[in-house]
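@channel sequence for tomorrow's demo:
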Amino acid sequence: MTNPVDMKYFQELSEKKPKDVCRRTICKYDDEKKFYTVSVWGDEYAVYPHKFKITRITSNFENPHEFIYLFIIYYLLNSKEIGISSEWISEKDIPGGVTFFRGPHEIPTHLISKQYGNNINNFRKRCEQLHGIPLDMADAAYSFKITSNISVAVLYWAGDDDFPPESKILYDKTISEHLALDILFALAITICTRIGTPD
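structure tokens (generated this afternoon):
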């Protein structure tokens, strides 16, 4: 799979002190082979800054959307040493989110609602396959730990005579400390694609 990552990100990461990167992101670094190992949504990835590449080490789930690679390198570069707050917000609650997340940047949660319709049980099964933790929200909802300090929640409502089925993603309140809006959008596409595509 092609990694949609600008070479400048690899260059920037190669100039970082591995000890600092590992402390912030709880990843590992191989001093001999010069690569990072980071866990993202249940899979392990190897990031080689000097070779300008990212490879998937494990295959616990289906192949993710290619935007996951952009998320990974940005996370290694910019994530802060901040724990999860367990307070949920929407993308519109993030500074700049109201204007950014619309039009071409609207979160594609329709990929989830189109897949499951009114079948809440199939939505639940899919989320449990992906190691989701049930939440007492909406008609069904699950939280997912994307990295050690980034968590999201996916909510689902079945439709009725007046409203179609609907899905929504919520983010831990600390998300804006770790990700720029365009990287959050890349992560959201990855989430919608993975949950909306049954194995």
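heads up for whoever presents: The helical segments are 7-14, 18-25, 67-78, 97-100, 110-116, 120-129, 175-178, 181-195.
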